[in-house]
């Protein structure tokens, strides 16, 4: 199997960093990964911007989902400066299909957009 393009490899590495509880609890580390114009739609349908996500994640009252397990992670380079990554996560029995767009900037690849959709493994299909 061939190596993924550098942009895909960087985006996948970034996704794995964001699963790390140390990164998720650090403003300094989060700003190194999240694009200034970052937006997210979470599993409840709520929209978040970069500031909201960082504030929520570093808060002492932030929910801690425990260990997030990622599977089926794959990426495709859509353009020289744009990568799409998809994967599934599970934490404490809750599962989500995830989709992210990563943009190349002067400082490297940054997460520009993320969406998570909950799913039930018993009724999910591969597709």
CATH topology: Nuclear Transport Factor 2, Chain: A
Q: What does the largest sheet look like? A: 6 strands, mixed
Strand content: 35-45%
Secondary structure category: alpha+beta
Give Rg in angstroms. 14 Å
Name the CATH architecture. Roll
Globally, the shape reads globular
Instruction: Kindly report how far apart the N and C termini lie.
Output: 21 Å
Spatially, the strands of the biggest sheet line up as 2-1-6-5-4-3
Fold topology:
Blueprint: H1 6-18, H2 21-24, H3 27-31, E1 34-41, E2 47-49, H4 50-58, E3 69-79, E4 82-91, E5 94-105, E6 108-119
Can you describe this structure?
- There is one protein chain.
- The chain has a single domain, classed as Nuclear Transport Factor 2, Chain: A.
- 24% of the residues lie in helices and 44% in strands.
- The chain is built from four helices and six strands.
- The protein has helices at residues 6-18, 21-24, 27-31, 50-58, and strands at residues 34-41, 47-49, 69-79, 82-91, 94-105, 108-119.
- The chain has a six-stranded mixed sheet with strand order 2-1-6-5-4-3.
- Strand 3 (69-79) and strand 4 (82-91) form a beta hairpin.
- It is globular and about 40 Å long.
- The model has no long low-confidence stretch (mean pLDDT 91).
């Amino acid at each position: 199997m061939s190596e993924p393009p550098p942009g895909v490899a960087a985006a996948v590495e970034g996704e794995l960093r964001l699963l790390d509880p140390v990164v998720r609890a650090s403003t300094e580390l989060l700003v190194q990964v999240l694009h200034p114009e970052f937006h997210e739609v979470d599993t409840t349908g709520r929209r978040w911007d970069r500031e909201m996500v960082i504030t929520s994640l570093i808060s002492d009252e932030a929910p801690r989902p425990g260990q997030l397990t990622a599977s089926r992670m794959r990426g495709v380079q859509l353009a020289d400066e744009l990568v799409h990554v998809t994967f599934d996560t599970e934490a404490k029995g809750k599962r989500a299909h995830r989709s992210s767009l990563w943009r190349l900037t002067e400082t490297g690849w940054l997460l520009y957009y993320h969406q998570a959709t909950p799913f039930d493994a018993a009724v999910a299909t591969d597709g």
